[in-house]
Predict the 3D structure of the following.
Amino acid sequence: VKAVGLDPRNDFNVDQILTKTDAQNLIQLCVTRLLDTANPSLSTIKMQVYFDMNYANRAELLSEQHRLLEGRLAPVVRDITDSHPRVQEEMENVYRKIVSYMLLSSGLGSPTDIEVVREVTAALQSVFPQTEMITFISLSKKNKEQQLKNLAMLVTGIRLYNKECRRGGSSIDDLPAILNEAILSATRTVDEGLNTCHTLAHRYTALLESMQEDQHRYTQLSSFKLKEALFNVRQYEAFLCILLSDAITSAQEVEKMNVRFAATMEQLKNTVQNKVSIDTKEVFPLFVALSNLWTGFQDEILLLSFLTNIANNLQQFSEIQSQLFPEEVLTSLLEGVTVKSDEERIRETMGTRVNVSDFKNQEWLFPETTDNFDQLLIQYHGFCAHAIGVKGLTLPGNPTIGILKHKERCYVFSSKEAAYIFAQDPDKFIQLNVEKAREHAELIQLLELRHQFEYLAPYAQARNAGKFFMKPTTKCDSSTQTDTHILPPTIVTSYEWNEWELRRKAIKLANLRRKLTRAMQTDLSHMRRENATQVYLPKDVSTQTKRDNSSSVPRPQIFLEGLRGGSSPTTHMVKVDLTRAVDET
């Protein structure tokens, strides 16, 4: 409906309410266009709608897949976390449910395979024996869920290690090898589609250029249909480029994960080395790392399957090319016409460049003068901004000629001449491109022109001013501004409405009598300012803590007689103690 309404050939005013006659005409045109099976424009729009409805980037797709997996496992988790077994038989039943959860969450093997169930049970018992069920039951619901996830990663890591050591894991597929084959298959499919697109786009472009040079040469060939076919091929090419970029990203991620998986497995082997007992702090993180890497492999399998499915489904929207322009017809039409590829067109203009001095009010960007030149957001999906509106062709732009920056948007051109013509009046050619998109609605998405249609004036307004019952509504951007506070603010900062805050302040003031104000003066603050301290005067209080006492003892008085000798040749010494007794003092 939008495509029919925007087409200027139908003379619909998209900004006004349609009359009853206009509504009937719109319905008739839509039905006619939908029933036209040989319409490349309709196939292109269907392709765009399909891609928008089904494509998702890596992050969105993986997030949705993990959400769906959690939703499928939610009943099992709820059954485990909500159970409160009392007897041994009930505990064994809950343990079997935990084994089923381990198997379903990892996706390694079928739950109906007895050998796989035994393998998972043995791996679980090595890290979570049944004797720990009592502790598990006593946990909260959230902690139970977290422990289930941790146990699932540990069990998966143990099974992967046993598979590497050839002690089990026969039901586990070799995902790295499968991924390598899937990546090659996906890239081969997309590359084949891209090669076909490139060939057809180059042929259609050469035919259209030849028709514009000699209009009488191809009298039976409709240039309008040929342009629609060209736009269909270019849109298919753009979508395939997106899928190829995702496939290359997936291949790079798989290569990195292969290296990390091999390194982690080797580290785990070196840690274990046939030891009888190993510290869980050493091996458990390695088991968890193996499980996470294997989950990454599973995610990449899902991504590649999704990309392959999208690529295969997109192919149906380009089958109309072979119906409208069979290989034999194209070959006969291209006799004597030189077909140039996009790379050849760019190589022909590699030596030319815009002379900046020829333009006073235009800003041109070049690789050597612009940072992040390759990351600039180019308008019109990188096609020449001049050729779209003037010739109706999607020619590849060559950034080395010079990128014109006009109103914060960047434009590239297929030749120096096209750049000079466009730069003389950019707004005019931008409007021509918009009008071309109104004729071919598929260009709105192909050239990323959605922002342009927010400000379009109705095409038929000037031609048929008196056709409509209501006059067009004039649109303009306006704004108003008012003062937030007209009067000066009269806010009392000391006001307090909270009664408890007032009580707290009152208690604080009443407690001042029990406080002392202290001051200190140092060498650095000496003579800097006046300090004053006021305290309550201390009371005169004396306290006796001991009693003074003394004692005196007699002085020793000892005399020796006969030391000087005498008339006798023999000396006789006599010791006389004249010290007074203590009680006599």
Q: What stands out?
A: Confidence is low (pLDDT under 50) at residues 455-475. The beta strands are 363-365, 403-406, 409-411, 558-561, 574-577. The radius of gyration is 47 Å.
